[in-house]
Amino acid sequence: MRRRLSVLVMAGALMWSSGAAILAQDQNNPDVLRKELAETMSQLKAAQDRKNELANEYEKLKAQMATMQKQLDDANRALAENAERTYAIRAQHAAWNAFLDRDPRLRTRWEIFLETPIADLTTTTAGDWLLATPTLPSLFDASAHATTAPATAPAASTAPAGPIPHEPPPTTQPAATTTTAPASHDK
After folding, report:
1. Which of 19, 108, 109, 117 is the most exposed place for a label (fewest CB within 10 A)?
2. pTM, rounded to two decimals
3. Does pLDDT of 84 surpass 70?
4. Domain ranges of the chain
């Protein structure tokens, strides 16, 4: 037991002597403390300056992002308008092709028109279009029909000398007899 007590006393003495040395090291020189304070203050000021720089960069990037978002919105709006226009043009083109498919002669004339330069489509003398639709003779045009005889002359035949263009030739079938039904009068 004495042995244990002596070991404890020695351990306590050792700790007490080393503790005093540790306490003596904590009491620093005021110049060293001022130097460390100045260094810490300069680091804090540098960190604050960097924080301010980052805040300014953030604001610039935020403004730039707003500008880019506005440009993106404008581009999307223009894209939508162009999509509407191209849809309308494609629909009109499809309708035009469907119209041309109804008449092969018209399609052929259209293809000739597209392949021929404008200067070649007009004739030089009258300025008429080369691809103009041919005019059909009119029923009301006096030059297309035989002239009527004067009233004092004997009556001429009412049948034309030749067939009228674009009309079927007269048939030689006997005239059909028509019967008229008596008119009924409701009173």
Report:
1. 117
2. 0.35
3. yes
4. 33-122
